[in-house]
Specification:
361 residues, alpha+beta, Rossmann fold, 2 domains, 6-stranded mixed beta sheet, 24% helix, 37% strand
């Protein structure tokens, strides 16, 4: 088999198409995941990420393509024969059953012997630190505890693959951040391969070994979180993952591996070779902007007017006035620029090496 993130491919999704009537939801999609990887499918609503998850689980059938898991062809296999665990956004727990009975549900469906069932339920509850809740009804549990029960139920059957469809979206922010770390740590301890669907970029960056950024039924970039953020493959990935300053312009000159671009904030330089006269989008992440003009090594500078300073505790976000279609934003450490107010003129600078360039859409 091929390789996924330097590992032998464990899950191989090849050439998958799916449409509902006249609407194409997934088209020609390939995804290769290595054993033990935690991969997030990240994208806006309607991009096809949940449909892809359901196809892998066997809850939907692809119109075309093939799915292999650890060498087994799952393409035509029924969902209950795939040995794939699924944690749904709604948790799909049974309110009339106890915690232990919910965790045992999949094992009972497989007609596991009583002793094996008890041992598996106890082990799964211990993994999610809910042993003492085994006899309690579901409706008395908090949202975070219910989420753990759903994970325990999926783990109890020893799945070859774990699929998670936005299971943290109903939790409040603080609990969600705690559960992100706990879930990531648990799956890493178990060595499980997992596919996680989310529309939350921060969640994907925190939890994933790799992120597949999806748009209109295709994967625009599949890479490690740092690469997706620092080296976005397309303007869509740039815009969907993180904030950025974005300036539209026209290439005025090409010198070696650098171009000069006329923009509304002046001439900016970037590394690339788009042709002279072409329309491009020049971008830079907000934390790369620094106050002041800088010296010669920075090469890119602009004078901007503060529109909104936003204090966020450990950092200050400065939103600047920008031309139509452009956006300018800087992220500074708290204590830097705290006295700036709306209407102030600010000089900023950044490195050519931190400047991104894309064809204008």
């Amino acid at each position: 088999m091929g390789q996924g993130n330097g590992r032998l491919t464990y899950l191989d999704v090849a050439g998958v198409d799916k449409r509902f009537r006249d609407t194409v939801v997934i088209q020609g999609l390939d995804l290769r995941v290595g054993a033990g990887e935690f991969v997030s499918l990240l994208g806006p609503s309607g991009c096809g990420k949940t449909t892809l998850l359901r196809i892998i689980a066997g809850l939907l059938r692809a119109d075309r393509g093939a799915i292999h898991l650890d060498g087994r062809d799952l393409t035509r296999l029924a969902a209950h024969k795939r040995n794939v665990g699924v944690v749904f956004q709604s948790y799909a727990l049974f309110p009339h059953l106890t915690v232990a009975e919910n965790v045992a549900f999949g094992l009972r469906a497989r007609r596991a012997p009583a002793a094996e069932l008890r041992e598996a339920v106890a082990r799964a509850l211990a993994m999610v630190q809910l042993t003492e809740y085994a006899g309690r009804p579901i409706f008395v549990l908090s949202g975070g505890q219910q989420q753990r029960v759903a994970v325990a139920r999926a783990l109890a059957v020893h799945p070859a693959l774990l699929l998670l469809d936005e299971p943290l979206s109903a939790l409040d922010r603080k609990l969600r951040e705690t559960m992100q770390i706990e879930l990531k740590h648990l799956l890493r301890q178990l060595g499980l391969t997992a596919i996680f669907v989310t529309h939350d970029q921060d969640e994907a960056l925190v939890m994933s070994d790799r992120i597949a950024v999806m748009n209109a039924g295709r994967i625009e970039q599949f890479a490690a979180p740092a690469d997706v953020y620092n080296r976005p493959a397309t303007a869509f990935v740039l815009d969907f993952v993180g904030m950025s300053s974005r300036f539209h312009g026209t290439v005025r000159a090409v010198e070696g591996d650098e171009v000069s671009v006329d923009t509304a904030v002046g001439v900016l330089r970037a590394r690339g070779r788009p042709p002279v006269g072409s329309r491009v989008l020049v971008a830079v992440r907000p934390e790369r902007l620094m106050l002041g003009r800088g010296d010669g090594e920075w090469r890119n500078a602009a004078t901007l007017t503060v529109r909104d300073p936003v204090f966020l505790g450990s950092k200050l976000i400065l939103h600047f006035d920008a031309a139509d279609g452009d956006r300018a934003v800087a992220e500074l450490a708290s204590g830097t620029g705290d006295k700036l107010a709306a209407g102030d003129l600010v000089q900023v600078h950044w490195s050519v090496g931190d400047t991104l360039i894309f064809p204008a859409s």
